[in-house]
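#struct-help
A.M.: can someone run this one for me? Single chain, 458 residues.
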Amino acid sequence: MSTTQGETIVAIATAIVAQQGSIGVVRLSGVKAIAIAKQLFSAPGKQTWDSHRILYGYIRDPQTGKTVDEALLLLMLAPRSYTKEDIVEFHCHGGIIPVQEVLQLCIQQGARLAQPGEFTLRAFLNGRIDLTQAESVAELVSAQSTTASQVALAGLQGKLAQPIRELRSTCLDILAEVEARIDFEDDLPPLGTNLIRLQLKEVLEQVTQIIATAERGELLRTGLKVAIVGRPNVGKSSLLNAWSRSDRAIVTDLPGTTRDVIESTLVVEGIPIQVLDTAGIRDTADKVEKIGVERSRKAAESADLVLFTIDAQAGWTEEDGIIYAQVKHRPLILIINKTDLAVAETIEYPSAIAQKVMTAAAINQGIDQLETAILNFVKTGKVTSANLDIAINQRQAATLTRAKISLTQVQETINHNLPLDFWTIDLRGAVQALGEVTGEEVTESVLDRIFSRFCIGK
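D.P.: on it. Structure tokens below:
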């Protein structure tokens, strides 16, 4: 993504839905922002155009004099703004027409429509935020749970960038010491190899700990897809309803009631979980039900976790065995449902199944145990308490993995007593990779990939 910071950009900064939005914001940033605002906005009385003040007035077309909207205008003058440029926001009436008209008027007065994420990109290029904070902005906007938003907010506050900068600074200090010995070996005392070994070990351990948060970060951002699978009438829909505390699925005593995949989204301990209630898997001549059964099989294949549900009254049946053979290669928890109607402890099932949960969905029993089992499934055991407010994304994980490889290679170089020139190669690689995380060393192509995922107006 290329951005010309001499240009003034404009975009609609709020979601616009017809007849549903009470306020719509149009945002300007750049050297012409104030001039454009004064062309369009009329503030009655003696209101002063001071920074961080809100003005009341009317937005008018300067060519026709037509009043477009009654609005508020917010001024934020450089450098005390999100982009460190002059920013003007028109707070219009919500809906589609007012904000679109204001947007077009701004463009007619010389502003350019902003590219996705260009406001945040300018904040990064102008030094207001680093790259981890910029990525946290996007993650905060798209957060699907309170925990995800808290992690994104921690990133926005620099809790990831600070340790990365400290690690990079340590690597730079080591690199400077090594290069000084190469250039001025006769004038300096011998290199403290043991101290460097210790420093590299500590840096490598911290990098490894941060990388370990990647899986948790992925779960917080994308969530977990869970499919409830089993033969008809084992209580799959009742389980979904009890778990989601709603009547998302139709529950009857007739087998085959669910004809399609029903979705419900829950949040368990901060992790978004997309639950798929599938049609009962069985051989059927009903064309509609057959389509539902096939979709159930596909849902099980795409799910991160299968909740294989059986009926405690019937026990483990031949039909259960056939379905289990189709899903046993997937991560799986056995759900023995309807335990209020039968004794479930004596049911025999394949020994390969490591986890089971007893439920009585009709009377809301066993749901807490089910959530605990799912949380046990997603735990990696790698996230230490010191890193609970950090959860890196895929780009950061890939870049830190490169840094880890470089640091490991430096250790091997030292252990093999290779010349100091060889040390510097991988030290520079580690410094480069750590700098890419925070944006201190980053290419335009990397910026393109990051900011193209932003919404326009952010």
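A.M.: thanks! The longest helix spans residues 161-183.
D.P.: also worth noting: Residues 248-260, 380-388 have pLDDT under 50 and may be disordered.
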